[in-house]
């Protein structure tokens, strides 16, 4: 299957919501992940990413303007040994705690469902990267309502091993802008992943809708050594 242009996917969608990209760099040396958040309301836009240990968390840019923090303040990225967890909500902690107790990625998420933000019922999207002894594999998950019906939670997990250089997958919460917002449909999209972290970060940030983009996190993990480099961009600096 032909890889999609990630830049084109972002430029042609004013509101994909929150998105996770995971893949292998073109030179084959790095496990790559990126996570971005967008917002339409003042409360959603009033956020930044800050480093927390080996991961990151969201934080109010202006604490005096913070309203309901329940679905917007969380740790999107946490590291458990040789595993990096990336999600769009507090299920990061659910996965971390579950896997720390020897549950699988999929098993850890069985206690969670889509977000309780009617009428959107925003999907919970999650990813995990496993880098060990020069090998790299990853999985992605989406928990979503049944075509907008909150009576049923549909659960999908996608696993990738023997990762091909220059290829990755992109999973986001909404198909496009709307009211209510239409949940993502289908499999994670196959996309191209370049070598250079700064070029990739710049490409993503410039392609995201200027009005709606809020924050971006990008990490390249050396598959041989496990060492990583990180870039964070916040609209509110």
Report what the structure shows.
This protein has one domain (6-234): Glutamine Phosphoribosylpyrophosphate, subunit 1, domain 1 (4-Layer Sandwich). The chain contains five helices and 13 strands. The mean pLDDT is 97. The protein is mostly beta strands and 237 residues long. The strands form three sheets. A six-stranded antiparallel beta sheet has the order 11-10-1-2-12-13, covered by helices on one side.
Provide a quick synopsis of the model.
Helix content is 15%, strand content 41%. It is mainly beta. The chain has a single domain (6-234), classed as 4-Layer Sandwich (Glutamine Phosphoribosylpyrophosphate, subunit 1, domain 1).
**What characterizes the major β-sheet?**
6 strands, antiparallel
Per CATH, the superfamily is Inosine monophosphate cyclohydrolase-like
Structural class comes to mainly beta
Provide the number of structural domains. 1
Distance between the termini: 39 Å
Strand content: 35-45%
What is the CATH level 1 assignment?
Alpha Beta
CATH fold-type name: Glutamine Phosphoribosylpyrophosphate, subunit 1, domain 1
Computed Rg:
16 Å
Helix percentage range:
10-25%
Apparent shape: globular
Q: Which strand order does the major sheet show?
A: 11-10-1-2-12-13
Segments where pLDDT lies below 50 for 5+ residues?
Answer: none
Q: What integer is the average pLDDT?
A: 97
> Tally of extended strands?
13
Number of helices: 5
Quickly give the CATH architecture: 4-Layer Sandwich
H/E element string?
HEEHEEEEHHEEEEEHEE
């Amino acid at each position: 299957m032909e890889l999609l242009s990630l830049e084109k996917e972002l430029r042609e969608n004013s509101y994909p919501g929150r998105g996770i990209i995971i893949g292998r760099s073109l030179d084959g040396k790095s496990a790559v992940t990126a996570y971005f958040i967008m917002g339409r309301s003042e409360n959603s836009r009033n956020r930044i990413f800050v480093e927390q240990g080996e991961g990151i968390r969201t934080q109010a840019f202006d604490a005096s303007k913070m309203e309901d923090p329940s679905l917007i303040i969380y740790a999107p990225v946490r590291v458990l040994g040789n595993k990096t967890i990336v999600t769009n909500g507090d299920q990061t902690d659910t996965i971390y705690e579950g896997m720390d107790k020897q549950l699988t990625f999929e098993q850890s998420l069985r206690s969670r469902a889509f977000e309780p933000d009617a009428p959107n019922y925003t999907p919970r999207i999650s990813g995990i990267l496993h880098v060990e002894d020069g090998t790299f594999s990853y999985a992605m998950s989406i928990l979503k309502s049944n075509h907008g019906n909150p009576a049923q939670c549909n659960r999908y997990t996608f696993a990738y091993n023997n990762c091909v250089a220059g290829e990755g997958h992109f999973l986001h919460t909404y198909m496009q802008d709307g009211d209510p917002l239409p949940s993502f449909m289908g499999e994670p999209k196959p996309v191209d992943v370049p070598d250079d972290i700064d070029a990739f970060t710049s490409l993503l940030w410039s392609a995201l809708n200027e009005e709606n983009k809020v924050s971006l996190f990008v990490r390249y993990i050396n598959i041989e050594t496990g060492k990583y480099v990180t870039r964070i961009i916040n609209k509110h600096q």
